[in-house]
């Protein structure tokens, strides 16, 4: 049983469509059909049910796919390890993050590349609540994100402030209770983000449901709309960078408003010296950062 048959089977199983799978694999449909037929002959069972022109994984196919995915992932990981061992500090790191701003991320990555200038990064910014992406090396995320088969360690926490327009009556204060803004219009990120859920919870814990008039798909727009006088909104102390003079930042004193972040990786992640170096770099970076933050 060769790897080509297994890789072809995996794609057909994922698409449940021979012609789409053939197109994705860049081979002819008859060649793909023959490969699947040879695999089934080798196994002695059919892996798909043929329903007219459609195919569906049957119970044999579902059971076999689970082991095929595990085997192929292990082989691919092994190949990646061999490649990284040849030149451990000049390969590519895949980093996923749901830190909603870029300030920390940019500083952390650029400082690492000063030490290891041949490293390349692939950065996936994922603000939605979702499971860990299997093809990522590391994931920096809010602790509320549910993960599957991952190891997680806490790396930093950030105070969440309330931003109000610079000419707002509350802008002269340094601290407020959230009840003082319960009748104000709120500006936030889109409801698909974990940020939306977490910051809404601040209001609910303070006894009210926020009147959200803007949901934005980017952090910059949230701050700009607050500065334009369109409403108030939650802003992180540092991770979104600095804000314009027409946004006043107020600390919240009636409840604890902070966001905690973890660093996570897959439970069965193969050893990679570059990943380990970057883990150590992140830990040191955020240790220094946490020492500079006063709650």
Describe this structure in words.
This protein is 40% helix and 25% strand. It is α/β, with parallel strands linked by helices. The chain has two domains: 3-86, Winged helix-like DNA-binding domain superfamily/Winged helix DNA-binding domain (Arc Repressor Mutant, subunit A); 87-295, 3-Layer(aba) Sandwich (D-Maltodextrin-Binding Protein, domain 2), CATH 3.40.190. The strands form three sheets. Strands 3, 4, 5, 6, 7, 10, 11 and 12 form an eight-stranded mixed β-sheet that branches. It has a two-stranded antiparallel ribbon with strand order 1-2. Strands 8-9 form a two-stranded parallel sheet. α5 links the parallel β3 and β4. It is elongated, with a radius of gyration of 25 Å. The model has no long low-confidence stretch (mean pLDDT 87).
